[in-house]
Amino acid sequence: MPSMATLLRPCWPKLLSCLPRTQVNPGRCQSSPVRLDSRVGGLGSACRSPLLVSRLFQPSNLRESKDAALDIRAGEMTCRSQKLMLQGGLIHPSSPGCYCYLPATVRAMEKLVRVIDQEMHAIGGQKLDMPSLCSAELWRRSERWSLMGNELFRLQDRHGAEFCLGPTHEEAVTDLLASQGTLSYRQLPLLLYQVTRKFRDEPKPRFGLLRGREFYMKDMYSFDASEEAAHQTYQAVCQAYDRLFHRLGLRCVKVQADTGNIGGKLSHEFQLPADVGEDTLMICGNCDFSANTETVEPGRTDCPQCHSGVLIESKGIEVGHTFYLGTKYSTIFNATYYNAQNKPVVAEMGCFGLGVTRILAAAIEVLSSEDAIRWPGLLAPYQVCILPPKRGSKAEDVGSLAEDLCCGLEELPNLKGEVVLDDRTQLTIGKRLKDASRLGYPYVIVIGQSAMEEQPQFEVRCQQNEETMFLSKEGLLDLLGQVETV
């Protein structure tokens, strides 16, 4: 199969042939998008104006702690991800435990949801969307209206009917299934999931998106014909979670866990080891046993599974949780299916959660340095940032190549909409490199004088491994043509 560079090589003469005839207007990148149609050879009709850093909404005043004061008062800015996301203009505190997700964060979250959708669809998941406003009557039937205590946000409508803002949706989805009286065993297993905002009245929200009162979660609910089938579904979802975190480059540990107020017979957490984590884990150094300390006998240091390994204590951030519920909810709400003998049978259930916004923050927490964000490659808001020379520098006459390069890279199928041009040419390359590192663009291309040589060379900084390379145009296309995106 020909390389990406071979396939796209015809574009480059069109990109570069116009450069000797192009005069640079030092002021054209200051505030408005540049029209390329009249300038760039045969690519004008196919290219849109480049996406300019000066036009991105990432409020610079968040880079200092003045505007973070509200967040500090809400719960002490004591973790890396909270600091980096505030300083980078990725989130803005609205009230304790609640945030505005700014455009770059929304892009990253949408990418994460696409990856989640891919993995859920691969195991037969079907996406739906249930109301955030949940009837108190359903929660009273499951007896969780009082069990959840102050964690529930409760309210009444003008007629006095009581509701809560859903922290989870076991009652709602089971009632939905129960309303479908003709469900057949041939339709099972049934896996229904959603990605929605959840609400929990945390007594002390902190750590930014790691512990909030309003957040995004993926919650899936399974319905099976037997306990054996439910366990098979349980394992299938756990394996999908393993694949998801592997694709994101996150080393998550699956640990046995308490079922808590969700209930059920079996539960596991997916924990991302981190010093800032609020959960304490016990991990065997000799086998694959790992558990939340809530499920281990206090003071125990020997492994209950292999009996020879020593349990090592670690902190973790919970990013996923799975439950085998059995018939806890389906019995209460009479969620049944008709078996092969046309007899109604109570369905076996499972519940599977992923903290969407928590995964974003946790990934930044464990992958980043103290002053620079590092995203999982698939989730970076933009993959490539191009830096033209500083206005007035000796290399300014090659500044137009940055826009042409931006247009050319957008021709790569995997980079459509993934390239930004840092047009703030009043700033030095060093200052813009620092900003690019802080915001976590995986690839930063610096346009210098070497780009105008007979055999052009482009300086490429790979932020994930902090490697700098000087590549020809073919090498650049080959490198960036292999970047995986969603």
Topology, please?
Layout: H1 4-8, H2 11-17, E1 51-52, H3 69-75, H4 80-87, E2 91-95, E3 98-101, H5 103-122, E4 125-127, E5 133-135, H6 136-141, H7 144-147, E6 153-156, E7 162-165, H8 170-178, E8 190-199, E9 214-224, H9 227-248, E10 253-256, E11 266-273, E12 279-284, E13 290-292, E14 311-326, H10 328-333, E15 336-338, E16 344-346, E17 348-355, H11 356-367, E18 384-387, H12 399-409, E19 419-421, H13 429-439, E20 443-446, E21 458-462, E22 467-471, H14 473-481
Helix pairs in contact: 2-12, 4-11, 5-9
- Name the CATH homologous superfamily of the largest domain: Bira Bifunctional Protein, Domain 2
CATH T-level topology of the largest domain: BirA Bifunctional Protein, domain 2
Taking pLDDT < 50 over at least 5 consecutive residues as the criterion, the unreliable ranges are 7-45, 61-75
Largest sheet: 9 strands, mixed
Count all strands and give the number.
22
Secondary structure category: alpha+beta
Output the radius of gyration. 26 Å
Distance between the termini: 22 Å
Query: What is the class of the largest domain in the CATH system?
Result: Alpha Beta
Q: What is the count of helical runs? A: 14
Shape: elongated
What share of residues is helical? 25-40%
Short description:
This protein has 486 residues and is α+β, with helices and mostly antiparallel strands.
Notes on the protein architecture:
By secondary structure, the chain is of the alpha+beta class. The chain folds into two domains: 4-58 and 376-481, Rossmann fold (3-Layer(aba) Sandwich); 104-366, Bira Bifunctional Protein, Domain 2 (BirA Bifunctional Protein, domain 2, 2-Layer Sandwich), CATH 3.30.930. 28% of the residues lie in helices and 24% in strands. The chain is built from 14 helices and 22 strands. The chain has helices spanning 4-8, 11-17, 69-75, 80-87, 103-122, 136-141, 144-147, 170-178, 227-248, 328-333, 356-367, 399-409, 429-439, 473-481; strands spanning 51-52, 91-95, 98-101, 125-127, 133-135, 153-156, 162-165, 190-199, 214-224, 253-256, 266-273, 279-284, 290-292, 311-326, 336-338, 344-346, 348-355, 384-387, 419-421, 443-446, 458-462, 467-471. Strands 4, 8, 9, 10, 11, 12, 13, 14 and 17 form a nine-stranded mixed beta sheet that branches. Strands 1-19-18-20-21-22 form a six-stranded mixed beta sheet, sandwiched between helices. It has a three-stranded antiparallel beta sheet with strand order 5-7-6. Helix 2 (11-17) runs antiparallel to helix 12 (399-409) and helix 5 packs across helix 9 (227-248). The protein is elongated.
